Amino acid sequence: MEFDELSNQVIGCAIEVHKQLGPGLLESAYERCLSHELTCSNIRHRVQQELPIDYKSITLDNGYRVDLLVEDELMVELKSAAKILPIHEAQLLTYMKLAGVKVGLLMNFNVCRLKEGIKRFVL
Predict the structure, then answer these.
(1) Can you tell me the distance from the alpha carbon of 64 to that of 84, in angstroms, rounded to the nearest whole number?
(2) What letter would DSSP give residue 113?
(3) pLDDT digits over 70-113, tens only?
(4) Are strands 118-122 and 103-108 parallel, antiparallel or unpaired?
(5) Does the pLDDT value for residue 1 go beyond 60?
(6) What is the b/e burial string over 93-123, where b = at least 16 CB atoms within 10 angstroms of the residue's CB?
(7) Least enclosed by CB within 10 Å: which of 48, 52, 61, 67?
């Protein structure tokens, strides 16, 4: 599946979740509902995927987790915040680098229109 097609499908699923729930809920609620929408759309994904850190000659399990890893090629980081801060963007970019994933979506569900809360990143 091509990036544009996959990311657009994921965004479509997220918009459906946002239409049904609106803003103001916890990130975990959006995560579970988005996972359900992805499953209904037959899009393979993993929720709360562990992300170890390879540092020099050792691998560290520090408890970092990716919100959603879609088709092993698209990382999705969910937020329910007043606004997206530079640290949120840096977090996603760091996670993408650590996981070797080239494409990521940062989605903030705490907005009136979800399209205003989505940013795409490509390494």
Answers:
(1) 20
(2) S
(3) 999 999 999 999 999 999 999 999 999 999 999 999 999 999 99
(4) antiparallel
(5) no
(6) bebbeebebebbbbbbbbbeebeebbeebee
(7) 61
As a whole number of Å, the end-to-end CA separation of the chain is 18
Instruction: Report the C-alpha gap between 10 and 103 in whole angstroms.
Output: 12
Closest CA to 79 of 107, 104, 103, 105: 107
DSSP string for 20-51: HH-SSS-HHHHHHHHHHHHHHTT--EEEEEE-
Q: Are 96 and 121 in contact (CB under 8 A)?
A: yes
For residue 106, the cross-strand partners are: 77, 119
Phi, psi of 119 (to 5 degrees): -130, 140
Residue 70 parent element (H or E)? strand 65-70
Residue 3 pLDDT > 60, yes or no? Answer: no
